[in-house]
Amino acid sequence: MSSHGGPHPSEQAPSNRWIDRWLAACADLDRLKQSSPMTDAVIEEISGRRIRIGDRWLADFASCNYLGFDLDPEIIEAVPEYLSTWGTHPSWSRLLGNPRLYPMIEERLTDLLGSEDSLILPTITHIHMSVIPVLAAGGTIFMDGRAHKTIYDGCQFAAARGATLRRFRFEDPDDLACQLKDDTSHARLICIDGVNSMTGNAPPLLEFARVAQEHEALLYVDDAHGFGVIGERRPDELSPLGCRGNSIVRHLGMDYDGIILVGGFSKSYSSLTAFIACPTPLKEMLKTAAAPYLYSGPSPTASLATTLAGFDVNDARGDRIRRSLWQKTDHVLSCLRRLNVRTLNHSGFPIIEIPLANHEDISAVGNFLFENGIYVTLAAYPLVPKSEVGFRIQVTAANGDDEIEELNDTLRRLAGRFELQPADQQHDLDQEQAA
Question: What number of CA atoms fall less than 13 Å from residue 176's CA on the CB side?
């Protein structure tokens, strides 16, 4: 004890060192939070895809409501009838009392995905934290080195319950195969993202599925940003996004043999629900093995209603909406090509990250965009490698053509004021990704 009655400094040192390391690692992020009006902002009002922060109106390119279902009149008008029938919120966990709305969603979702079965839970985070430990079964988890933080958290929870966690290089099936070859565990689970939330690109899923099959591993794919946006390919498709928005597995013409697909309605369908597409025996096991089915409060009635109404809109005009989304995204990407500005996006999907030449410019760039009426997602270190620090544009079908033009005009002026990475500059990120 110190002479003042508190713990001696040496007794606090381990705890303080851990906190100091955490604060140091997040110093760039903390500085951005303090200096940027686009971090932890309070949105006072919306008008279409424009938002008001304080007294300033901005065109919103930070929304993940890709299809614009959050603003669709047909979907909004469907909600009151459900509320009058079911109230604002079901009062049971699903295992105790299952409102008919849930099996209705699962039936339509299973048909849309073409999977054997599906299970609805409140959020993707709930799914990762509860399902990954069950599937890992105390064996080895092989996780993509840049998988989403919520996947990592689920893997960490599984590790606490006896699984071994190993990481392979970002979107590298060969590195995964090398690690699997040396593994002798009784169960192997591979965890990857579908459409990446930062690059906007899809992984080489066919190669990952082949590696998984060769090594008798189960492939677990989180396609939060692909579901609703990309879907099965057809000769009569209206855009390269494909048809029906039934996710990356169908987009690549694959089946679900050895694949567990996870996705959510909170992005494309603007509803607070999530799903796992899986065989029926696994679904039945998860009803008792996955804690959210037993203990979590269910999704609000309005979210269940907008999910069902979203299916109707998707059936009736979803492909036309996706064509508009593709065209608007392509308009922005074409502008960047003319400016010779590098983006990580090579897919044409509606997530466009623009990395800066100097990562220390992130705050100034964010303020420039804000002052010019453009709202985006800032990507700071350590959320991304320093070579990818920049900003992410998320295009939605609800963005007007005028907003797309405002964005492109602002990007032209931004490129004249700040140093951005040129499109013809090649970057070797292997060492940083491995770290």
Answer: 30
Q: What is the pLDDT of residue 435?
A: 42
Q: Give the whole-number percent of the chain exceeding pLDDT 90.
A: 82
**Considering only CA atoms, which of 382, 351, 367 is closest in space to residue 63?**
351
Residue 430: pLDDT above 60? no
228: which DSSP letter?
A: T
Q: What is the mean pLDDT of residues 208-227?
A: 98
Helices (H) and strands (E) in the chain, counts: 15, 14
Map residue 25 onto helix, strand or coil. helix
Who contacts 56 (Cβ-Cβ below 8 Å, separation ≥6)? 370, 373
- Is the pLDDT higher at 435 or at 169? 169
Give every CB contact of residue 217 below 8 A, 6+ residues apart in sequence: 142, 180, 188, 189, 190, 211, 258
63 Cβ neighbours under 8 A, 6+ residues apart:
49, 70, 394, 396, 398
Q: What kind of fold does domain 81-314 have according to CATH?
A: Aspartate Aminotransferase; domain 2 (3.40.640)
CATH code of 27-69+318-434, in short, is 3.90.1150.10
427 backbone φψ class: left, alpha, beta (φ>0; ψ -120 to 50): beta
Q: Where along the chain do its domains lie?
A: 27-69+318-434, 81-314
Residue 395 banded pLDDT, cuts 50, 70, 90: very high
Q: Which strands form 377-379's sheet, in the order they lie side by side? A: 351-355, 390-394, 377-379
How high is the pLDDT of residue 34? 67
Q: How far apart are CA 182 and CA 265, in angstroms?
A: 38
Whether the per-residue pLDDT at 366 is higher than 70: the answer is: yes
Report which of residues 385 and 46 the model is more confident about. Answer: 46
What is the pairing mode between strands 164-168 and 140-144? Answer: parallel
285: tokens are: 């096991």
Backbone phi and psi for residue 199, each to the nearest 5 degrees, phi listed first: -80, -25
Residue 216 pLDDT greater than 90, yes or no: yes
CA atoms within 13 A on the CB side of 404: 21
**C-alpha radius of gyration, the chain, whole number:** 23
pLDDT for 167 equals 97
Q: Give the count of beta carbons closer than 10 Å to the beta carbon of residue 233.
A: 14
Using one digit for the tens of pLDDT, what is the confidence trace for 263-283? 999 999 999 999 999 999 999
